[in-house]
Amino acid sequence: MKHPEAGGAEVIIQEVMERIAAHGHEITLVTGNFPGGKTRDRIGSLDIHRTGNTYNFNLAGPRYFKRHLESQGFDLVAEDLNKIPFFMPLFTKLPVLAIVPHLFGTTVFQQASIPIASYVYFYERFIPLVYRGCMFSVLSETTRDDLIKRGLSPNRIRVIHSGMDHALYQPSAVPVRNRTKRLIYLGRLKKYKCIEHPILALPAVLGRVPDAEYWIVGEGDYRDELARIAKRQGVEDHVRFPGFMGGKDKVRLLQESRVLTYTSPKEGWGLSVIEANACATPVVASDSPGLRESVVHEKTGFLVRHGDIHDLGEKIVTLLTDDALAQGMAEEGVRWASTFSWERSAEKTLALIDEMLGRSARSIV
Fold first, then answer.
1. How far from 360 is each of 191, 349, 354, CA to CA, in Å?
2. CA-CA distances (angstroms) from residue 150 to 56, 97, 128, 139?
3. At 344, phi and psi to the nearest 5?
4. What is the tally of helices (H) and strands (E) in the chain?
5. How far is 19 from 23, CA to CA, in rounded Å?
């Protein structure tokens, strides 16, 4: 969670593993390093080992595990297949639980350079072969269906949704009609998330809602390009980059904003969507895998065809101007978010681990 580009995937691992640790289990996290990061650290109950970097961790991580950790008597390896697999079943005889937010498939070629996209696509092709004997935990039914189409047995896949910190994410007393005409994005600033789509819609939105703003909250290597796009569109005065915001600051921003936008072509699960709903903030999102499960269309927000900038702008304007509709969606969102809990996510994950081992695990890496 200390990584400068930490997002929803990191939140899920932290929240679930902290609760598993609370049941008396020892958790060791091997993860990529970053400038200024310590090679050894501790976050809550998790013992952190950092090695490699963004570009080589899929090679450095398994090597570090073999050299420094495998001999320490772990019961289970939980591999987070986030962007690229590590192929841990090839490196250990320990049971491997594959945790999959989502896979890219051919959509990676729309989001990354040909060499990088080919690298990711090539690695993903080997998942059914390498992990055929593993159990899978996935965030959504769409990811489950994706894995089945790739040849994995449905009997080896469990859908475990992310949870929600209801003590932190709560609606404020401010009704939606009194909020700033602000739409926000929360998360990593990456090209593949298509964060520029609301910028492209903003000229039309400003024609009908002149005081509208778009706040892009987070850090990432796509920030400068987003700023350039805003300038080319002539809306740079209405686009803000406040940087990373977490904890109470993040909650306050959600409580004060009118709309959350999430225009990614593929997600494992829209955690930011549920966080926004818990704060009584409606959502406009792409009708894409993962997001179509976290957004209840026309109840907690709107789903629009991915890349349809006109419809995106229309739905944003509707929520910025129709107070009654926005308030109704805000209230539905609070009810929807209340059905998710980290405790339930952790319990289901522990049940899956016990099923794999035929007993309770004591230590997990």
1. 41, 12, 5
2. 26, 18, 7, 17
3. -65, -40
4. 13, 14
5. 7
* Cβ neighbours of residue 141 closer than 8 Å, sequence gap 6 or more: 159, 293
Tallying the residues shown for the chain, one arrives at 365
Question: Is the pLDDT at 125 greater than 90, yes or no?
Answer: no
Q: Which CATH class name applies to 176-337?
A: alpha beta
Q: Which alpha helices (DSSP H) does 96-239 contain, by range?
A: 114-124, 127-130, 141-149, 197-208, 223-232
Report the alpha-carbon distance of residue 182 to residue 218 in Å, rounded.
16
Instruction: Decide: 212 and 182 in contact? Cβ < 8 Å.
Output: yes
- Side-by-side strand order, sheet with 77-80: 77-80, 96-100, 135-138, 157-159
pLDDT surpassing 90 at residue 334: yes
Tokens 């896949």 belong to 157
End-to-end CA distance of the chain: 17
CB contact at 8 A, 225 and 250: no
| Amino acid symbol at 342 | W
Domains 8-163+341-364 and 176-337 share a fold: yes
Domains of the chain, by residue range, sit at 8-163+341-364, 176-337
Calpha distance 303→311 (Å, rounded): 10
CATH classification code of 8-163+341-364: 3.40.50.2000
Average pLDDT, rounded, for the chain: 92
Look at residues 174, 188, 253 and name the one whose alpha carbon lies nearest to residue 221: 188
What is residue 266's predicted lDDT score, i.e. its pLDDT?
A: 82
Tokens of residue 134, six digits: 């593993």
3-state helix, strand, coil in the chain (%, to 5): 45, 20, 40
User: What is the distance between the alpha carbons of residues 284 and 261, in angstroms, rounded to a whole number?
Assistant: 5
Using an 8 Å Cβ cutoff, are 1 and 14 in contact? Answer: yes
The sign one gets for the Cα dihedral 122, 95, 135, 349 is negative
pTM over 0.70: yes
Map residue 184 onto helix, strand or coil: strand
What stretches of 239-341 show up as alpha helix (H) in DSSP? 247-256, 271-278, 291-294, 309-321, 323-337
